[in-house]
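Support request, priority: normal
Reporter: lab tech (M.K.)
Component: structure prediction queue

Hi team, I submitted a job for Putative RNA exonuclease NEF-sp from Folsomia candida yesterday, and the status page still shows it as pending. I've pasted the exact input below so you can check whether something in the sequence is tripping the parser. The sequence length should be 682 residues. Please let me know if I need to resubmit or if it's stuck on your end.
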Amino acid sequence: MFRLLDNDEEEIAMQIESATTKKEKRAQKKAQRLVAEYQVTLSNDEVKRPGQLLDAPEAKKLRIDPGDKKTLSPSELKSLKKLLADRKKALTQLPRFLLQGAGVTSSMSIQHDVREPIFMTDVQNLLLYALGGNQLIQPPNRWCNLQKANRLTHVLTLIVEGLTSRDFVSYEHLFPKLTGNFTDRVEVMAPAYYDREVSQELSCIPLSNAQKEAILKEYGSMEKAVAEKEIVKQFRALFPTKMMNNSDLPTKIISAPLLSTKADLPENDIFPRTYLLMGLSQMTYEGYPMPFWMNLTTNKCAGYKLSKDEYKEVSASSPMFAIDCEMCITETNPSELTRIAVINENHEVVYESYVKPKEKIINYLTKFSGITEEILKDVTTTLEDVQEALIRLLPDDAIWVGQSLNCDLHALKIMHPYVIDTSLIFNLSGIAGRKSKLSHMAEVFLNENIQSGNKGHCPIEDAKAAMKLVKLKLAQGFLFGDSIASTDDPAIPEGVLTTSIFNRTYKSNKTVAVIGPERVLQEYENVTMTPPDGIAAFTSLKTSKNKESVQKITEVAVSHQLTIAHVDLSEKLQEADRAEKERLFKKVDKWCDKVYQHVSINGMCVIVFAGPKSVPKSPPDNAVTISDSSSSTMNSSESDPSSSSSSVLPVLPNPNQPPKKPKKQRPRENGVCFVRINTLKI
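Reply from support: The job had stalled in the queue. We restarted it manually and it finished. Here are the results:
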């Protein structure tokens, strides 16, 4: 039997003792690190004050030196490990703000000529979701991802009117605290481009269909709800629209019938076709040509035309026309029109033509379009001929129907406000954002086989299929054919019934304060109902100076779940020389920093440069005017509500006239939105 010698036993014993000592030392060092980590977290929590950064000198001074010796018992070490693990788990549940989608393409970190700004309503969406989550509104996923919104303590919002994106870019060095505190900053379309005030954009939100029905049951009629300021009719003037005048309404609102009854609907429709219209944000997200791009520097819609010089407001009885186009690839354009078909609701061909591109065709895409060189050989119809035909033939309240119609409108180089896209109103996959092919939907719902064979697509056949699908949905119900839709989230057209955000926040027991001059407060109050108990739906704090507004928001920072303060520099900036502008910008930087310093832990701060208060107008003969009888709900602070005077809408460059020689581009004048959540870090 093998036996160790005495000296071998001694050596083994020494090795065991040495190993035990090393293990204990490692355990002691680990305990010291854990203690140091815990003490650092305590010092952070102790020193951290609303708005103070984690690397503040005061925090660093109070942090304990990790080398501080302390021996822990096994039970103490176990408790400390659990304490730190629980704290780390809690910190992973903190709110986070991330840009995505439209927020990435509107980021101020990319070149101005490729940026695509978000809208002030997107900012409103963020504020409301931060305030009450899904109880108040859908998440702002179009442009950002706000995680753990229910853990936000409060939201502070400072609106700086008159300050533009060009000002920020040109004088960025004068905003060191703003740029240091806020890394997430996006360009925002200035409301002045579509004749709106920033307060109007922030105060009103569209009603969903379910909310319309609930209001109808509560009030008995939409007219009564308007009279009680439960709802307000508003329209964003992106397209020149002549709205119908309802002189019988108890308040001066220009609108189509507020809610269609069964008697108002076309035969076989069981709900208004306007429920299927795409909204502004949806059209922008899907890449539809929009008039406001003509004001910007992206050249996205250069040479495009409006389908009408003026539009009639859309209604449940507006006619529908299905449009489908076939395209080819030319030397300068990857999607050039070669054939078009327009179908009416009776499935009759209203217009059909082959089209000869001006540029040389390098790929006829015959497999898909069915177009060949021989077919186009004797064709003389041009894109301009097609545009003129559509402008002449289709009525001014026509609803255009099609499958992914954005592609067709770009090929036609035409912009139209009223669109139903079959790829969006049907969903067979159960996955949001995944579109079904027209041929697949025709097979499932219509029992028709289209786009078969090897001769390419027929636009007449495709247009008829799209029209049949829309009419089928109108006859079966809003949820028909959509596996993910609910009655609470339909697309809402931009001529909409809206409700004040304060009506909604009040009913959800959320407290809101608005700070600013009397003009701003009046604009918010004009669209807000007075609750039955007589208590205001929001707290209004009147100020007479910008400095006073900034001071007020810091005083009431933690008193309300949402606080909005307005300061207006538009007049001062218009009259200021360069030196005065620099002085004002430095002052704004201090204001923004002061507001941020009063955001509590897990609070969110939003700074908005609202852009110019006015934009250059087109020549007077191109102006579009509408009756100002709605001024009691939209512009009562600037005009007498009892007046019937006219107001001029902001007029976009006339796309139906030859474009002028382009000038050297420069950064445009829009707004900027800065967002940051004030959270602790491990």
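The first helix runs from residue 6 to 47. DSSP finds 23 helices and 24 strands in the chain. Let us know if anything else looks off. Ticket resolved.
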